[in-house]
Amino acid sequence: MRTAVHNPFQPGSDVVPEIWAGRTEQLSDWRDVLRPRLQAGLFERGRTVLGEPGLGKSSLVRRIAMQAERAGDWVTPQIRLALGTDPLKRIAAEVLKLADRAGLPAARENRISSLLERVQTVAASGVSLGLRDREGVEPHTALTELLVEIGHAAIRQNQVVLIHVDEVQNITDEKLLSQVLIALGDAITREVDVTVPAVGTITRSLPIAVYLTGLPEFDDRSGSRKGATFARRFATTTLEPINDDDLRSALRPLVVTGWETPSEDGSIVAVRLAPDAAETIVDVCRGEPFLFQLAGQRAWYAGSGDVITRPEVLAGWGQAEQEATSHVERILERLPPREREFLSAMAELPPWERSQGQIAAKAGFAKPTDAGTTSQRLDRVRGIIGRGKVYTFRHRAIEAFLTSDWPSLEQ
To answer: Is 385 helix (H, G, I), strand (E, B) or coil?
Structure first.
């Protein structure tokens, strides 16, 4: 009954789990703002979604992409950039697939044929010295112009184009990063003239949506290069852990109606989640989407009956403790020493004493203002803490790890 095939929980990056929790603001942004405005020909900035590992950045945009595909939009797969990859080469390869879908290879215009050939060279060779020496426009400019042609085709066919570039923090070359941002940014800001029946010629923006996802380092790495132009072209969101009410809402259908699975005799049985078991999953995961899926997955495997009980959640979590520990340790290990020192000092103080001055003193900083830049980065860039008169942990798994025996649940 509770087999691996029918387990609705799916921990791991880049997957869209069947039990979805939270992120309603970002999902409604696509449904109610970004897509309608692009369809209407209105300019809308691209979206940059950043956050620490395990917060579901890629899963969020893949869910948006699935909604777009169901609506018939032209969507790229997740263009994941490995460290050292030529980003223009990867993006060009996927843009050529969009061009095929738009029917551009069938066009008889020499201009489009030449443009396709140029981008095909980029997709094959990347931004090499030999390519730069060839006659014609720069590789990133050719990519922009092809996106513009795809946008024209999307207007004619009443479609929206969605491009998702993942792991953008891995673009470490400043020149390449600049070219990628310019190529994509120029496409989404391009205005074109179109003829509307009974109205005449109007100017509109292209229906192209661009999502960039990655770690907070992208904000650091591109900050000095992107400047005001980037801010005008891309709106950045730093994801935080999901609040407990959203997690409860995600589990509610399992509590009330259950999850339908086939039994050994072929009949359909609903596997339900006991209310106290649901509350335990919410408690142990501390708002982390990855840990939420991990706790649910292990609870599913911890028994075989048609009700997942609290003891089964606890047993499953016991098997997941090491992975949960490693998950938080990896986040902390990625931080610069000064930021780790700040968090450790903050965790050693009672919650009501976590002011900047007290934390700075505990961390051994010479004066409170020495902690200003560090706390700003932990707040604005990483989303780990919240600054105020009293500082708070927004990343509750890190807080629990530093201030208690969590993830261990032993009393």
So the answer is: strand
Q: Judge contact between 147 and 95, C-beta under 8 A.
A: yes
For residue 345, give the H/E element and its range: helix 337-348
Query: How do the pLDDT tens digits run along the chain, 411 residues long?
Result: 788 889 999 987 778 999 999 999 999 999 999 999 999 999 999 999 999 999 999 999 999 999 999 999 999 999 999 998 889 989 989 999 998 998 887 665 667 777 778 778 877 766 554 444 445 568 888 899 999 999 999 999 999 999 999 999 999 888 889 889 999 999 999 998 888 777 778 899 999 999 999 999 888 665 555 555 777 889 999 999 999 999 999 999 999 999 988 877 778 889 999 999 999 999 999 999 999 999 999 999 999 899 999 999 999 999 999 999 999 999 999 999 999 999 999 999 999 999 999 999 999 888 888 888 899 999 999 999 999 999 999 999 999 999 999 999 864
Distance of CA 224 to the CA centre of its chain: 22
Question: Quick one: CA torsion of 3, 6, 9, 14, rounded to 10 degrees?
Answer: 120
| 75 burial level (CB within 10 Å; 0-12, 13-18, 19+) | buried
Instruction: Tell me how far CA of residue 258 lies from CA of 16, 20, 275, 277, 292, in angstroms.
Output: 20, 15, 12, 13, 18
Helix (H) or strand (E) holding 308: strand 307-308
Around Cβ 173, how many Cβ atoms within 10 Å? 13
CB-based contact 62:164 (threshold 8 Å)? yes
Q: Is 266 exposed, middle or buried (0-12, 13-18, 19+ CB in 10 A)?
A: exposed
Q: Please answer whether residues 115 and 142 qualify as being in contact, where contact means their C-beta atoms are separated by less than 8 angstroms.
A: yes
- Domains of the chain, each with CATH number or no CATH: 24-238 (3.40.50.300), 243-325 (1.10.8), 335-403 (1.10.10)
Q: What is the DSSP letter of 378?
A: I
Calculate the alpha carbon distances from 87 to 19, 143, 191, 361 in Å. 33, 12, 25, 44
Q: How far apart are CA 237 and CA 57, in angstroms?
A: 10
Q: How far apart are the first and last CA of the chain?
A: 32
How far apart (Å, rounded) are the C-alpha atoms in residues 118 and 141? 10
